[in-house]
Amino acid sequence: MGSESNIKLLDENGIRLDGRTPEQLRPIKIETNLLERADGSAYIEWGGNKIMVAVYGPREAYPKHTQDIEKAVVKARYNMAAFSVDERKRPGPDRRSVEISKVISEALSSAIMVEQFPRAQIDVFIEVMQADAGTRIAGLTAASVAVASAGIPMRDMVVGCTAGKVEGKVVLDLSKEEDNFGQADLPIAVLSKSKRIVLIQMDGDLSLEEFEQASGMIMKATDNIAEIQRNALINRYSVESIGDGE
User: Fold this and answer.
1) Residue ranges of the chain with pLDDT lower than 50?
2) What pLDDT, on the 0 to 100 scale, is given for residue 235?
3) SS3 state at 122
4) Collapsed DSSP state (helix, strand, coil) of residue 38
5) Which CATH superfamily is domain 28-241 in?
6) Distance (Å, rounded) from C-alpha 59 to C-alpha 117?
7) Secondary structure class of 45 (helix, strand, coil)
8) Where are the chain's structural domains?
9) Model confidence over 65-76: pLDDT tens digits?
10) Single pTM value for the model
11) 1, 83, 158, 180: which has the highest count of C-beta atoms within 10 A?
């Protein structure tokens, strides 16, 4: 973020490198129920991101000392495959993936009715197969769909988006180049109905006015993304109903 670059990220009309306007999302596609052995699953393509999520549980937490007698423990594991980026990364967890796993676990715990499953754990595996900026938000958005597809009771869906600053202008849903060479990156995730924030981080600098503009753009975008989530679940149940009727 903020590295010097000769790349011009906005043209004279405010159009971005990929042809989008400042408030335009990258294409998003979500599918669910793709993995037979998982209790719930989802696949998301968001721009160039390609991410698979598998959910298992609720089941008895093990080892037993990790159990909470009052509620289920949500354990999200975010991982970027070694081949997911241009420069091959070292396999296995690193400091960044551990931190992202923690904030995703906390965000999902806010949405899941964890109090219904004391001493249990819910495992959420998020595998980034191709990375193109905004992977934590894309992974979390898909994870919410995967949890719902597992039939785990939820208060609300979690949905998120990013915004940031590029060449002094606030833009929505940063691309890889904008993330690498822009001036700020602001990922936010909310509960879709109440708009309660469950994840917020910032890299770079935004004025108060820029922050309010960026967060407003994100809140508006989450309505559109939540509809994509709902349609993915509706399509899953529609397909199942057709199959049951044959």
Assistant:
1) 3-4, 242, 246
2) 85
3) strand
4) coil
5) GHMP Kinase, N-terminal domain (3.30.230.70)
6) 9
7) strand
8) 28-241
9) 889 999 999 999
10) 0.91
11) 158
